Amino acid sequence: MTLPPATITSIPIYDFAMANQELAKEDMEDYYSCCGNYICSGCIHSLCMSGNYAHCPFCKAETMSKTNEERIEEMMKRVEANDAGAIYALGSYYHHGGLGLHQDGEKEIELWKQAARLGSSKAHHNLGNVFYEGGDMKKAKFHYEAAAIAGHEGARSNLGDIEGRSGNVERGFKHWIIAASAGDCNAMYNLQQAFEQGLMPREAIDLTLTAYNSSCKEMRSEARDAFIRTMAEINDHGM
Question: What is the pTM of this model?
Answer without folding.
Answer: 0.84
